[in-house]
Specification:
single chain; mainly beta
Length: 92
């Protein structure tokens, strides 16, 4: 069963949608940015964790990114920058 989680602009701090040590699998990400270009950095763990994905989105666009499954063992930390940027995480 998959869960869809929205993550908005987080600035330099970022957000931690999963802070658990229970492994989660990232199946897809939809990046969107309405005003300025967006950058999305997704780490395993907290702010200093291993960078698993870095995605970019042009202003005024939306892009789906599908994966075979990216495993996160230490939780998940997401940093979103860019005015009007959002990402949607599909977690299994």
């Amino acid at each position: 069963m998959s869960v869809l989680i929205e993550v908005g602009i987080s600035g330099s701090v970022g957000k931690q949608p999963f802070a658990t040590t229970k492994p989660v699998i990232l199946k897809s990400v939809i990046t969107t940015s309405t005003v300025s270009a967006g950058t999305f950095v997704i780490r395993d763990g907290e702010t200093s964790g291993e960078v698993k994905l870095t995605l970019r989105q042009a202003a005024g666009g939306s892009t789906p990114h599908e994966f075979e499954g990216v495993r996160f063992d230490k939780g998940m930390h997401v940093k979103v920058t860019g005015t009007g940027s959002l990402c949607y995480l599909e977690i299994e």
